[in-house]
Design goal:
Chain A is mostly helical. Chain A is 60% helix and 1% strand. In chain B, the strands form 2 sheets. In chain B, strands 3-2-1-5-8 form a 5-stranded mixed sheet, with no helix packed on it. Chain B has a 5-stranded mixed sheet with strand order 4-10-9-6-7. Classes of the chains: A mainly alpha (591), B alpha+beta (277).
């Protein structure tokens, strides 16, 4: 009837690619530390990202203490508050989410999901991690240098980022820029691996249109990152030159603390264009892997194929492409030419359409499914709610004139936390609960998991949903203390205090999660190879956890897409991707 | 069952919070009520979509949760449904974008009868400048800034001599008169933000940005800085006083021009050098 790409035998070419020679570890060091196995690198990435993420979490507690109870905590001064917000934002966006989705999930899942033995350039892949670790260490060092970390805000806008009115103007900003440069170098090494592996190392029968959406999400995000990060790279180098050598890329003639500086002729807006040319795709670099993971979690745990697979793939690709022509919606009130507003508002709102399609297809996958309310499924549901909420407030901020009163207020803070903080973190948690059994061979504890879920979801929602209304009220962001105003009622301070208490409780629940991760490693229930009854390839490995080389002697052959759940007439409610058609009772499930 | 209930509760609680909570925008004091209208429209459309999606999810979780022997339906695609949803979304998006762009066009089109005022930001205070009798503002440059000339006016520019200079003070505006607010900074980015006006714009060293508005009611309004500008960003405050023409002109009479201020400063300096007379 229709040309559906998941018929069972199409696209299986004879094996043309020779078996790869793997680098086999010879010692404990090369097995666990300087490993070239993508799965070990993935775990290294994940542990490092979550460790630095804990630092950012603690910073968020300090910020919430200050905002909820201004003046109570004498150990937080205005300078430190700015340093907290800067480091919190930068760590969460780049060093946690980007690294965890691409370096963590990407490394672990891409080779397993496409049926490869490893990444195509294992040595470069290993280097990628070590450069990333170096970037994290340089970033961490800024907490201990004279003047402390930079307080320029995570956007690092010049001129203030490198002038003396901003904390961390000396060592802090220099090391921050150095760390970003290192991160981008490390990421590029990993990113090239992910892209080439997806394009070149898929096993026989694994056509592009049979790949799980997780791979599509990570793959597209990586391509985007390879195109977007160079903009941040050059911006960082140029800002570093302005700071250290006195060039004036971003610096017009200006006065610093009453003294005329030597700068002249540069453009602060240029930095903003470069930053957001990276920064907006970055939002989707974090979102697309989450989209993919959520699609797979919903499908597996609702025992139903993902609805509208092809539309989902094209939506991912379309969003990826469109996200490169919307960046200046972060700059509606930056002072750029106001006519840009027409163009960027239009492109920005157009991007809502493929995004909405994804949401519809997730909830339509639930429709007439067989929904198992496992912990991964719960996180997937929470992802949809928080993502829809944050996506819809994006329609406020993307619509240029609506953005004017709301920009630079707490509304923006609430929006981006909902859409690219809470939602992707829900996907991360869902993904960890889902794939932990494959990584360790044991299940995460269910009771702790459900506790973690309910506190995190409802708590985070209680923090960020009301926050929109503080922004509507006119409360600006990046204020350590709103102080005396004529327009903020006393009740808003009570709301702030409530949000702070909620944030601390959510923070506490993350400790339960960490405990669960460690405890289940030793005491968790044995998982077996495929505890969820999933059809995609990573669950069909001969060993769990998979050994080096993933597939034992023979690479798997793929006969179908990754979503054959509840196929009419099949013996089980899932058909693995590598199960030959002969094993299927009803041949043409869709004929 | 419980999960479906909680999901539905989240949707209902969100709507109730929106309708019942006391936190809402400040009463407007400018002509930009169109912006408020666009926000209200956007709230209606997005609120409906949010509620519909979450309620649908909750229903699915309730109706199709796993029971012994239940099995999912196999339905890979439904082209018709997918197209209808796409078209419906496109219409909803257009319904928000079109009025938004119309209002933006008004926002960027300054009326011919708007008078100019200049706001200058520096770490961490606000200064203002009004054109003098000639109705024109003189040129400026950050390189001219000194303790005698804190706003950096061009001494050679005749148009600037009668400019009224208010260093680190408050701005007065006339109610009902459109103004084009020219924005300037001599050090870092700032943003002239008066919540009741709805309009705001960044100030960039090296260039002059602007927005326009017509104040629609009298009163005293807070000026805040909305673009992170360093350590004392949160304390960078001033006030705008919107008043009737009579009061405004009375205030204007008392203000000093650039020439007067320079003269005063020169006198003070000469006195200091001569031995503090």
């Amino acid at each position: 009837m229709v040309d559906i790409p998941f018929d069972t035998t199409a696209g299986i070419a004879p094996a043309e690619v020779a078996e790869v020679e793997l680098y086999h570890p010879r010692s404990w060091w090369t097995r666990y530390v300087f490993s070239q196995d993508a799965k070990v690198i993935a775990i290294q990435y994940s542990i490092t990202a979550m460790s630095i993420g804990m630092v950012a979490l603690v910073l968020s507690w300090l910020m919430r203490l200050q905002l909820g109870f201004p003046g109570t905590f004498s150990f937080i001064d205005p300078n430190q508050y700015l340093q907290f917000i800067t480091m919190h934002g930068m760590i969460m966006v780049i060093y946690l989410l980007t690294a965890l989705f691409l370096g963590g999930f990407g490394n672990y899942l891409i080779p397993l999901m496409v049926g490869a033995r490893d990444m195509v350039f294992p040595y470069v892949n290993m280097l990628s991690y070590w450069v990333y670790l170096l970037a994290v260490l340089v970033l961490t060092a800024t907490f201990f240098v004279p003047g402390g970390p930079t307080g320029a805000g995570w956007t690092l806008y010049p001129p203030q980022a490198i002038l003396s009115g901003t904390p961390g103007q000396d060592w802090g900003i220099t090391l921050m820029l150095a760390s970003l440069i290192l991160f981008i170098i490390g990421f590029t090494m990993g990113g090239l691996n992910y892209v080439v592996t997806v394009l070149q190392a898929r096993t026989r029968g694994m056509t592009l249109m049979r790949m799980p959406l997780t791979v599509w999400g990570i793959f597209t995000a990586t391509v985007m990152a390879l195109l977007a990060f160079p903009a941040l790279f050059v911006a960082s180098v140029m800002l570093l030159l302005d700071r250290l050598l006195g060039t004036s890329f971003f610096m017009p003639a200006l006065v610093e603390m009453g003294q005329l500086t030597k700068y002249g002729g540069g453009s602060p807006i240029l930095f903003q264009h470069l930053f957001w040319f990276f920064g907006h795709p970055e939002v989707y670099i974090v979102a697309l892997p989450a989209f993919g993971i959520i699609s797979d979690l919903i499908s597996v745990h609702a025992r139903k194929n993902i609805f509208g697979y092809r539309m989902m793939v094209w939506a991912i690709v379309g969003i990826g492409a469109l996200s490169f022509v919307v960046w200046a919606h972060h700059m509606y009130v930056s002072g750029m030419h106001p006519y840009f507003g027409f163009f960027f508002a239009t492109t920005t709102l157009i991007i809502a359409i493929p995004t909405a399609i994804k949401v519809y297809n997730w909830v339509l996958t639930l429709w007439r499914g067989d929904i198992h309310l496992t912990v991964p499924m719960l996180f997937a549901l929470a992802f949809i709610i928080t993502f829809v909420n944050g996506g819809l407030t994006g329609l406020f901020l993307g619509n240029v004139v609506v953005d004017v009163p709301l920009s630079d207020t707490m509304f923006v803070v609430a929006h981006f936390h909902m859409v690219m903080g809470i939602a992707p973190i829900m996907a991360v948690f869902g993904g960890i609960y889902h794939w932990y059994p494959k990584v360790t061979g044991r299940m995460l504890d269910d009771v702790l998991g459900k506790f973690h879920f309910w506190v995190s979801f409802l708590g985070a929602y209680a923090v960020f949903f009301p926050m929109h209304y503080l922004g509507l009220l006119g409360m600006p962001r990046r204020y350590h203390d709103i102080g005396e105003t004529s327009f903020i009622p006393a009740s808003a301070h009570d709301l702030n205090a409530f949000m702070s208490v909620a944030a601390l409780i959510v923070g506490f629940a993350q400790l339960v999660f960490l405990f669960n991760l460690v405890w289940s490693l030793f005491k968790g229930k044995e998982a077996g190879g495929n505890p969820w009854g999933a059809a995609s390839l990573e669950w069909q490995t001969p060993e769990t956890p998979p050994g080096h080389g993933n597939w034992g002697k023979e690479l798997p052959i793929v006969y179908r897409w990754a979503y054959d759940y509840s196929v009419p007439g099949a013996a089980r409610d899932f058909v693995p991707q590598n199960e030959p058609p002969a094993g299927l009772l009803a041949q043409g499930a869709h004929s | 069952m419980a999960v479906a209930f909680v999901l539905l509760l989240v949707a209902i609680a969100s709507v109730l919070f929106h309708l019942l909570s006391p936190w809402w925008w400040t009463p407007i004091a400018s002509n930009w009520s169109y912006i408020d209208d666009t926000i209200t429209l956007t709230f209606w459309i997005t609120g409906a979509v949010f509620f519909a999606i979450v309620a649908f999810m909750a229903y699915c979780v309730f109706r199709f949760r796993h029971k012994e022997g239940s099995k999912a339906v196999y339905e890979p695609e439904n082209k018709k449904l997918e197209w209808w949803l796409t078209i419906g979304t496109a219409i909803g998006v257009a319904a928000m974008l079109a009025p938004g762009l119309v209002v933006w066009h008004q926002f960027v089109t300054v009326p011919a009868d708007a008078t100019e005022v200049e706001v200058m930001g520096q770490q961490w205070q606000w200064s203002y400048r009004l054109p003098g009798k000639d109705g024109r503002l003189g040129t400026t440059d950050a390189r001219n800034v000194s303790s005698e000339n804190p706003l950096g006016l061009n001494r050679d520019d005749a148009a600037g001599q009668d400019d009224i200079v208010i260093e680190n003070g408050d701005l007065h505006l006339q109610v009902g008169k459109p103004v084009k607010v020219l924005l300037r900074s001599i050090d870092v980015l700032h943003d002239f933000y008066v919540p009741e006006f709805r309009a705001k714009m960044d100030m960039i060293p090296g260039s002059v940005t602007y927005f326009w508005l017509t104040p629609t009611r009298t009163g005293t309004f807070d000026v805040l800085c909305a673009e992170l500008c360093g350590a004392a960003h949160a304390q960078m405050r001033s006030k705008v006083i919107v008043e009737e023409a009579k009061d405004y002109h009375a205030w204007l009479e008392k203000q000093k021009t650039f020439a007067e201020l320079s003269g005063q400063r020169n006198v003070a300096k000469a006195a200091y050098k001569a031995g503090g007379k």
